[in-house]
Amino acid sequence: MAETSRAAAGAQTLARGLRALELVTTARDGLTVQDVAEQLDVHRSIASRLLSTLADFRLVVRGGDGRYRAGVGLAALADGIHATLRAAAEPVMRDLAAELGATISLLVTEGADAVALLVMEPPGASYVLSFRTGSRHPLGRGSAGVALLAAGAPAPGDAADVVQARERGYAATFGEVEPGAYGVAVPIAVPGLPAACLNLITYRAEVAEKAPGSLTAASAHLAERLA
After folding, report:
1. Number of C-alpha atoms within 13 angstroms, CB side, residue 178?
2. Rounded (10°) CA dihedral 194, 129, 98, 182
3. CATH of 2-70, one of 2.160.10.10, 3.40.50.10490, 2.40.50.40, 1.10.10.10
4. pLDDT in tens, 71-91
């Protein structure tokens, strides 16, 4: 009986710690101990111990203003998560690029930027619009940047295009990253994984117009592979 109680208490502590980590890393400007205590509905001393333990492993760091933010220890975890994302996404993206005849990319949030983890060009195409893996642009700019912001929880001051993308499930832009190019992006919703999206870029308006349905289906398929 005592062992069962200790196991249950340990599971609860782990769950709280993971939830605290999620809260801190998704907050735009970090969180205080009191913020975490209130969101977890625990005493301030418990929140403080959880954050101190996370800080010991460099998963969070306490700034001079007393707010906790993501720590450098998350980088190693992110590398593993990104490898998992790329492996799961590659076949889905290959099929999608062939179906739509356009370049498909997988992008994630990194700081204030959207970063391309994987880029897939359509097979046999004589001319495609593409970019390199590792390319980045600011969040909120281009379809991928808007979709990544829309993947987060609503916040005061969200731009109109972010609100619209959140409501309809995809972001569509024109000429924001590449002059004359259409972009369409759909978030990939997998609890516990960082914000990611599938993005299409093309000069062809008719391809962009029919892309949301295919991108949404591919994103749902990928989410199932990752769940």
Report:
1. 16
2. 70
3. 1.10.10.10
4. 767 766 667 777 888 888 999
